[in-house]
Each structure stands twice: as structure tokens, then as C-alpha cells.
Amino acid sequence: MSISRRSARRSVRILGVASASAALVLGVSSSALACNIKEFSAEATCDGSNGAITVTDKDAFGTPATITVFLENNGADAKQVGHAQTVKGSKEGTKVTFAEDWAPNATYRVHVKVHSGKIKIDTDITPNLTTSSTACTSDESSSPSPSESATPSPSASESTPAESDSPAPSASDSTTAPASASDNAPSPAVGESNLAETGANSNTGLIAGIAATLVVVGGGAVWFGMRRRGAHSGN
Q1: 53 CB contacts (<8 Å, ≥6 apart)?
Q2: What CATH topology corresponds to 37-130?
Q3: What's the CA gap between 161 and 140, in Å, rounded?
Q4: Could you report the per-residue pLDDT of 136-190, keeping only the tens digit for each?
Q5: 45: closest CA among 92, 108, 123?
Q6: Domain spans of the chain?
Q7: What is the per-residue pLDDT across 85-125, written as a single tens digit (0 to 9) for each?
Q8: Is the pTM of this model over 0.85?
């Protein structure tokens, strides 16, 4: 069965569209995988009292890139830090260091330039790098010296109590107390002192007994009188 001219044209058109789509997808994927400015980062680091500007390249394809660092002052380049350095990135990140005794809150511009085949980058890492508010300090200044950390020994006057100026009491003074005048007076009897403290020698018990007796007698008299009156009324 022969293929008609119309069918052949349709087949060629379909193959052309498919080829164009494949080329477009390949171009987008290759551009996405190419070196990108977003794969570069910068930070101000310290190695003891020595400061540095560290740039990290995470380009997995290892495209060579030239890094240049500038100190900024009022939006303009004040100086270039060291010399431009070339770095080949990696998936884990490749670092390149610029020695710089940076000041607190300083601003640095980091420029990245890549020219490899179709990959062209000539721009800065944004935003600019701003250093920490605290400058780098050495380990010796941050840690106390042995003389400062050592505990001061107490002086002789603090550790050893001074001897008292007053003479020590003699054995007779410390063991025998002088007899007072009240010691010669006769002491009260044991029973009397207890009664005086508890109130047992007072007349309170006797008065209470008499009162109770009078209450009982009076009650009996009232009851006896009422009974006699009832007997008379009955008669």
C-alpha cells in the first residue's frame, strides 16, 4: 500500500514538532544545570584574631569562576581585597578565602565572573556582604590569664586570727562563779513552790464545794416544799 503525499507531509510535520520540543526541553534543562550566580555565597569569618572573607561555590559542574572582593564605602569601592582568585565549584561547595582584617558592620562587594562556552556570568553576589557587629578576637584575650583565673590565697591576717589583747581568764575565774547574795537565803520547800505556781493552796476548791452543797440543799428544799403543797391541796 503506497503512502499518499498528504500522509507523508503530515508525518514530516509531526517529526518536526517532536524534534523542536526535544531541543527546547534539552536547552531548558542544560541552562538550569549550568553555573548560576545563586550557587555563590560569601561570609565574614575569623581564624582567631585574623579575619577573612570566605566565598563558597556550589557549582556541581566545576565551571571555573573568578572571584573579586571589594571593600565598600558610601556605595563606592574603597579598595580591592587581595587579588582575584579562580575557584572550581563542587556539589558539596568549594571555598576560597581572602585575608582581610575586617571591621564590625563593614560592607563588601563580591564579584563573580564566569566565561566558559555558553555560560557567561559577570555580576555581584546580592545583597552585599555585611560583617558582624563584633570584631575577631584572639583566644588569649577571650580567655582569662592564669594569674587572673587563679584563686587568690588568703592573707596572713585573714587566715590566722589575731590574738586578743585582753588577758585570758584564769582557771579559778572560768570554773567557779562568784556566789550571789540570794544563794545564802533559804530556798522554799518543794511542795510550797509547786502550790504557789499551780494555785493549789488557794480557797477556790473549798468555795466551789460549799456552793455546790448549797445548790443541792436549795434544790431539795424546793422539791420538798412543792410536794407538801401538793399534798395539802389534795386533802
Answers
A1: 42, 43, 44, 45, 69, 81, 97, 98, 100, 102, 108, 110, 129
A2: Immunoglobulin-like (2.60.40)
A3: 39
A4: 987 654 455 455 544 555 554 454 544 545 555 444 444 444 444 445 545 544 4
A5: 108
A6: 37-130
A7: 999 999 999 999 999 999 999 999 999 999 988 889 999 99
A8: no
